[in-house]
Amino acid sequence: MTIRSGDSVYQCLANLTVALEQVGQLNSAEYNGAAGALSLLPTAGALLGAPTREMWIVYKLVPLAGVLSMFLGLGASITPSNVGDYDPEEPFSYGGFMPTTRLSPAERDPPSRRTSLDEFQQGGSPIQPMVEEPKSPADVFADEVKKRAGDDRGGGFLLGVWMAMILQFTLIIVILVPMYYAQRGSVITWWCRVWGWMWFWYFLITVVSVFDNIIAAPFTHSWTIRVSRRPTGIILDRDHNSPRITDTSRHANALECLEANPNTSQRILISNSEATTYSRTCFYVVISVQGISTLHAIAQILSKGASVAVFAFGTALFASATMLSISVALMVLCLLLPSGVAGRVVAMWIVSQVSRQNKPILHKMVKSKAEAAKYFHAIAKQDIQMEAMGHVILDGYIVKSRSKWFSAATYIGLLATPYDVIALAEKSSRGLHYSAANRPSFVGMQPPQAFMSPSFTGRSEETTLLYNP
């Protein structure tokens, strides 16, 4: 820091010149070797492995963990840019960092709920299968989504993922600490007064890496849906009825309805005839349109150009470092490179844990936005709870609208529980009971007809008594 003391760059350069004149040839050779060793750091990202689908899944399922993986990538791209890499039928390889032993079908598939009466007639002969009309691919995929929603296993990984994210934070600190000591004791000849030059390089490559990973996916249009099992004990208040998002008389499909940002919501109530339960686990459905737009292609070109520029800048930066001992340079390399590899291993471990019992994500790639709308519409017609575009949807009805930026699921993904519609229904029911309790009494005359509210639960039509003097 004595070299950087002074009021101007010229004073700093003068101090550096005096210091270099007093350095012997052996020390000078050591400084040159240290600078040459550190000049390999800009290529460290390529040593961590190629982009994989598993890393994209980490970013989709737990966005915060995905961003931390980008910080630990040392400038590497973790999102693949080829459509073939996103094939949902391909098994996970985990980049060779995780074992790929598969579970047996009995462990992966939930036990069937079909009873003997469903499989056999009273005489003991099998029931002849009914001839059904062939379903469209969108309806088949929607049935798969509903079947997956009925399997609410897989919540045991939450603590492990939180611990993995804490480990990612720790690894970032492990990267920053040796950089601090290395940059304090070394000087860049053409950037004399700046002491935080190594941190500047690290955050510069991280910003470029985050931008590159966001736009690297070969999908300009993609929709993410959080799906969970439909809560029980919830009925719809037909006195305050709102149209379904699948109502084609208002919009062509459910996707177009949500893109119009409707400001109506369906009121829900607590049923008096059924216990209330809701799933605390969810999964993701991603519908992507293959292909990118012109602006997306331009952004990818700019991203590649920025990556090349940052690589050249980093190489020149480390090659110009002086007054840095070889021991400090080796300390930096021995801590940064293993931290980057450990970050990739942790990310792969997260994917392996969330995929251990069932599929955490169902990805469907389509050819056009119109085809994507068909899949979205078919999913919206299912008897499930889904969250998309800031709306909480139950049986095709919007029950709550909120900003996605104020939702925990936007940042921690699967670690956030599904929206608690039970609490929303309890609040609405308390409001109705309060209104009924404050109605005027009818003394000496026949009471008016009770306010009856028929509500459709998806199986049968129930009637909830809202006012009964």
Structure in words:
The chain has a six-stranded mixed sheet, sandwiched between helices. The longest helix is centred in the C-terminal third of the chain and has 29 residues, at about 325-355. Helix 5 (about 65-70) packs parallel to helix 9, helix 5 runs antiparallel to helix 13 and helix 10 runs antiparallel to helix 12 (about 295-320). Strand 9 and strand 10 (about 395-400) form a beta hairpin. The chain is elongated. By secondary structure, the chain is an alpha+beta fold. It has helices at about 10-20, 25-40, 45, 55-60, 65-70, 105-110, 115-120, 135-150, 160-185, 195-215, 255-260, 295-320, 325-355, 370-380, 410, 420-435, and strands at about 185-190, 220-230, 235, 270, 285-290, 320, 360-365, 385-390, 390-395, 395-400, 450-455, 460-465.
